[in-house]
Amino acid sequence: MPESTVRERAGEAPARETRKLKYGEAVNAALARVLAELPETLLYGEDVGKPGGVFGVTRGLRRRFGDRVFDTPISEAAILGSAVGAALMGARPIVEIMWADFSLVALDQLVNQAANARYVSRGTAPAPITVRTQQGNAPGACAQHSQSLEALFLHVPGLRLVMPRTPQDAHDAVVAAVHADDPVIIVENRSLYFGEKAEVELGGPARPMGWSHLRRPGRDVTVVSWGAVAAQALEAADALAADGIEAEVVELTWLNPADMDAVLGSLARTRRLAVVHEANTTGGFGAEIVARAVEAGTGLDAAPVRIGAPDVRIPAAPVLAEALLPSAAGIAARIARMVG
Amino acid sequence: MDEMRRRLADLHAMWRIRALEEKVRELRIGAEAAVVGSVHLSIGQEAGPVGACAELGPDDALFATYRGHGWALARGVPAEAIIAECAGRATGINGGRGGSAYFTAPEYGFYGENSIVGAGLPIAVGAALAGRFDGTGRVAVTVCGDGALNQGASHEALNMAAAFRLPVVFVCENNEWSELTPIEEMVGEPELWRRAAGYGMAGERVDGNDPAAVRAAVRDAAARARAGEGPTLLELMTQRLVGHYIGDAEQYRRPGELDRAREREPIARLGRELAEAGADPAAIEDARTRAEEEIERAAAAALAAPPADPETAKDHVYA
């Protein structure tokens, strides 16, 4: 029988400490923690072992943890499929898909395999894998390295998904995901890896999935956002405040489970809703947030607004991409129209 | 066990699968059918599971395909639980969630059928990989059809298993039909086992209608795997005597093909060989009747069980 849900933990949660870390360093620290804490963890993917990852996120971990950290062939189906198989045997594999776009060649293993394992076996053979990937546009990235694909995964019951934006959330997401008994996809963003250092609290018990942040209070409109573009939403809120519009910004770190209580609680105060994501608007998770808000019977004083990429492919030239992706100015202008 | 008793045991084990499949077919056909949906029978392919499962230990992990009833039964899953699963009963091995084509029984080392062609190969690689760290010394055995070797995931799995010298036995049941299409028209090299050399692993073509030949090949492959010598690709040559699925009109069959296949099919063949070797005719007959009686009892018990409970349909999506 698989033992993944009953195996004794290696020991107590590591003691709390605070360090100043960049986003990528925070992920690294969290991976080091779970590798030390849970002997059933494995960490692997393309170039994650000896090279330490194309973004350096897994640097030093092979040296520290040996053969449990290793490189693989360029074979996403084998990476994800072997993670499912190892998890069925009681391991806790943490695998990296270098770009979210690359997961598309291996979706079978996530959608048909990982997501079904627990359900079909009625809990006796779950596949608690952690998949780390990163997505979104960065200057010069081509159309096959720029997509924001979270909605594809969020359509699939059985998969959890988290999109951390800050170093603390990036750290906590890894710890929570690896401790969780569900398959979890962590969607990072490469534009954040080398950002500013921030105080990150390490150690302590894993947080339960599903947290969000009320980043900014405001009475006029609720702005729900996630991922790197939430920074633009916050910048837009500052700009709106200068014009007398107080936007309340709810950042959903987790999209499954999503903290709808936070969203609906805010809406009860503001009665206006804008969702901001980098993904294409059509079929985006923003549409789901709007639908849930409406279904919850929330009375709205204005038609809700979805702000995302238009239904266009993402071009490589920065000047072209900038014309499509949500910007702080564009977000602020759209929200001002709604509120005004 | 002496050779004669061993072969009689093989005959009985194959009859159990045959009787199970015949019973599932009976339950699938007709207006009052207890089994609905797509069902893929393994009639004619019984020697593979019987030979291979004889070589597996309790820690080993078996991954099968949607044509997997026989593999489950040979691995020890009770017939009643299989039939109940096919019939959507609460007592089915997965309480009706898997159905004929996607059930799993980890408590028997049977990590499931798979309805996605080729998907089981990478998963088995992971089971073997985990065994490298958890101290079980597990061998992972993954079954696929001939057509599955043309899936990209299969290639990735074969390569990764070879690159890491993982203890995997890739068992390809070549029944000559890639669903409804001849495999030989879908490959440049119809001897599929030859691909093994390209991956840097051992490979062998095996008489897949002879349980003793399958057993010997799997024993050698598992021994190599346990010795750290890496994976093996076994190509079991066999034929299915029935359609790809129940209801398949089989218009693609060539003239005389099934007549020839019936002469080679494993149960009739082993029965003939045992008779020629001087086995007691009553023992040969007993191998069949015991199997048929077991399956009749299993089916009666399975069908007497209540249907799966709709109240539970939303359970176990998440931990």
From TrEMBL, chain A:
The keyword Oxidoreductase applies. Residues 21-195 form the Transketolase-like pyrimidine-binding domain. Signal peptide: none annotated. InterPro entries: THDP-binding (IPR029061), Transketo_C/PFOR_II (IPR009014), Transketolase-like_Pyr-bd (IPR005475), Transketolase_C (IPR033248). The keyword Oxidoreductase applies. GO terms for molecular function: magnesium ion binding; oxidoreductase activity. Keywords: Oxidoreductase, Thiamine pyrophosphate. Its cofactor is thiamine diphosphate. PANTHER family: PYRUVATE DEHYDROGENASE E1 COMPONENT BETA SUBUNIT, PYRUVATE DEHYDROGENASE E1 COMPONENT SUBUNIT BETA. This is Acetoin dehydrogenase.
